[in-house]
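Example record for the data management plan.
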Amino acid sequence: MKAEIITIGTEILIGSILNTNGRFLSQKLSDLGVHVNYQISLRDDFNELVEQINESINRSDLVFLCGGLGPTEDDLTKDALAHVLNKEIVIDPNEYDHLIAFFNKIDRKMSENNIRQARVIKDSKILHNDWGIAPGEVVEYQNKKVFLFPGPPKEFEPMVTKYLAGNIGEKNDILIKSLNVVGVGEAATEDRIRKLHIEDSEISINTFAHFSETEIKIIAEGDDKSSLKIKMDNIISILYKEFGNNIYAEDNVTSPEALVNLLIEKDLKISFAESITGGLLTSKITAIPNASKILKASYITYSNKAKIKDLNVSNDTLIEYGAVSSNTAVEMAKGLYKKGDCDIAISLTGEAGPTPSEQEIGKTFICFNYGNKLEVKECDFKGDRREIQERASKYVISHLLLKLN
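Corresponding structural encoding:
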């Protein structure tokens, strides 16, 4: 089943907002075994919308129109689709009542143009919006399906989650599994998989890089679900034999979540001393439920003064070797561990840029202190400031998963 996603809004094309809807919907469709062949962003232009909708319907089974369902005159998605399908647009009484109730609830006068959001294409299936005003819709046309979803992510994401699977239909049985790998790299992961020769006409395997992690996505697609499951289980077994402890989790479990769960399982406590990452690493851990069971302390020692005061780093070390050095990283990790109440103390210090002060941009020193057994890593991360900080944080999480798994 082939799909394409059309995100609508001039604000996307001029960079005023980030198009997160396309990514979210692509992930959901991929998980359902639907192949997304195109993602397109368009301005709020009636003629361009009509032209693109015609082209998309001709070449795809499922077409998703995201955005352009608001109350203003430049919200033209519904009008363009109705024009293509030669369908009438009508006011839905239930959606009109919902609209009135919404404005009464927030004690605000409804503008006349808000009534546009109660309009629907005649004979469409209405997807009621519990998170906003404008409903979604599904329209069937020439054995194809066209979906309309509102653009704001706070409405779009829950509506996709609620309505997508039950409305796309099925042409065959599909099984999907993801294995998440660290410490190998996408190119090496892909090369090792191809050498196993485990794909066939019903099984496809692809890899996707996520900084220091790689997702292996296995899709089994055919007419016999029980036969597909046997194949899928066999392939998963082969991949576990090939990659072993490099597989840290399955499906939608993130690496921070996997690390928190692993530390809880092993009853280990952890603390961080962050300079280059400025608290980013800690925020990744605290975003996970039950992080309080494993995270004991976190220090952002961005300045030399903070390194000396909070972690007892020697001023002589800072003068002789610099703040961005293995020596400073070691003293940071030692000072952190001496504060007590943790099994693992980790320090990071480096150059995030864009202007170097002591080392080349991306140079980072990370010290892992396992009960005064020290392990120092010297890394050279590429990218801009944000990417370097992200890569440093992900590196720590990946390294711990490999070390402790």
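Summary line stored alongside the record: The domain at 255-404 is CATH 3.90.950.20 (Maf protein).
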